[in-house]
Specification:
Oligomer: single chain
Largest sheet: 3 strands, parallel
Number of strands: 6
Shape: globular
Structural class: alpha/beta
Number of helices: 8
Radius of gyration: 18 Å
Distance between the termini: 64 Å
Strand order of the largest sheet: 1-2-3
């Protein structure tokens, strides 16, 4: 009977852990052993005035840390761009702009187990994308910073290859 109970609760993939505001080293090690992705919501975290989350510690250990938006109870928008910008501008976290962009795109797909379908723009992937207005003369090396630190708006969005928003027309 014990063996059956254990098999009934066997996980086929690791659980996705949300928020994880307070983790100690043992918690982080356990999450690493489980290979469980973490979804962190930066503006939600700050709304409740938590201490800085161990996001950098998790990323340093090559764990998947995706970004989420929590809810309108603790945010004024559900915009992933707003979450990425908030995290990139936050003094308590030393995360590169490129890594913040991955947290808001590829790592979210990886956390959900669908990184072979979405999360990057590449042949064979589902065409989900958002275009952000940045100055036309932006140097290629500065594009991540322009997206996260400038105030360019989303001007186009596509889901599954279908345009769902177009501010350019």
């Amino acid at each position: 009977e014990e063996r059956l109970r254990t098999q009934a609760f066997r996980m086929f993939r690791p659980p996705v852990l949300l928020h994880c505001h307070y983790l100690d080293l043992e918690d982080i090690k356990l999450i690493g052993r489980m290979r469980a992705p973490v979804v962190f919501c930066p503006r939600h975290h700050d709304y409740f005035e938590h201490e800085p989350a161990p996001v950098v510690d998790l990323l340093t250990r090559a764990m998947t840390v995706a970004l989420g938006t929590a809810s309108l109870a603790s945010n004024d928008t559900l915009s992933m761009l707003d979450e990425m910008r908030h995290l990139a501008r936050h003094a308590d976290y030393t995360i590169s702009d490129e890594e913040v962009l991955r947290m808001g795109t590829l790592y979210g797909a990886r956390a959900l187990g669908i990184e072979d379908e979405v999360g990057v723009i590449a042949p064979g992937m589902q065409a989900d994308l958002t275009a952000i207005a940045i100055p036309h003369n932006t140097d290629e090396s500065r594009v991540p910073a322009a997206i996260l630190h400038d105030e360019g708006a989303a001007v186009f969005a596509m889901v599954a290859g279908r345009a769902i928003y177009d501010a350019t027309t």
